[in-house]
Amino acid sequence: MFKKQFKNKSKKNKQNVSTQPQVITRVKTPKPDEVMGVVEQRVGANRMIIKCLDGKQRNCRIPGALRRRLWIRPGDIVIVKPWEFDSDTRGDVLFKYRPAEIEWLKRKGLLKDIESEF
Fold first, then answer.
1. Domains in the chain, please, with CATH?
2. Is 35 left (phi over 0), alpha (psi -120 to 50) or beta?
3. What is the rounded CA–CA span in Å between residue 42 and residue 73?
4. N or C end of the chain: smaller count of CB under 10 Å?
5. Cβ(80)–Cβ(35) under 8 Å?
6. Best CA proximity match to 52, nearest among 91, 103, 99
7. Contact of 28 with 36, CB cutoff 8 Å
8. How far, CA to CA in Å, does 98 sit from each of 20, 27, 102?
9. SS3 of 15, please?
10. pLDDT interval class at 35 (50, 70, 90)
């Protein structure tokens, strides 16, 4: 009986997957104390090296609240909040942009510095 319930749930999840393209209504932009950056390398655990648009390279971590919801790979564009005491070398990852949002940012000219990397 348990297996039947499990099978029904898996079929139900497959039906909910949409194949329509994403429509962008709002795109999050960095606040004055935040910076956009590109993930260069995963270092292990929940840390990664990110090259930020302000010209600095930071060792950033994913905070505990986002650890299981935010899956990040090298090449992803993210929003970083630098730490208060070691802001030039460390920070927290707050948000990851989706591909449609990245295209919107490029059209608006917010990603001029890193267009050559893609």
1. 28-117 (2.40.50.140)
2. beta
3. 7
4. N
5. yes
6. 91
7. no
8. 15, 10, 6
9. helix
10. very high
CA end-to-end span of the chain: 50
Q: How confident is the model at residue 82 (pLDDT cuts 50, 70, 90)?
A: very high
Per-residue pLDDT band at 118 (split at 50, 70, 90): very low
**Are residues 111 and 77 in contact, defined by beta-carbon separation less than 8 angstroms?**
yes
Neighbours of 48 (CB within 10 A): 23
Residue 55 neighbours by CB under 8 Å, 6+ apart: none
| Alpha-carbon span 12 to 115, nearest angstrom | 40
Residues comprising the chain, all counted: 118
For residue 107, give both structure tokens.
Answer: 């059209």
Q: Residue ranges of the alpha helices (H) in the chain?
A: 2-15, 99-108
Determine the 3-state secondary structure of 33 from DSSP. Answer: coil
Q: How many CB atoms lie within 10 A of CB 58?
A: 24
SS3 49: strand
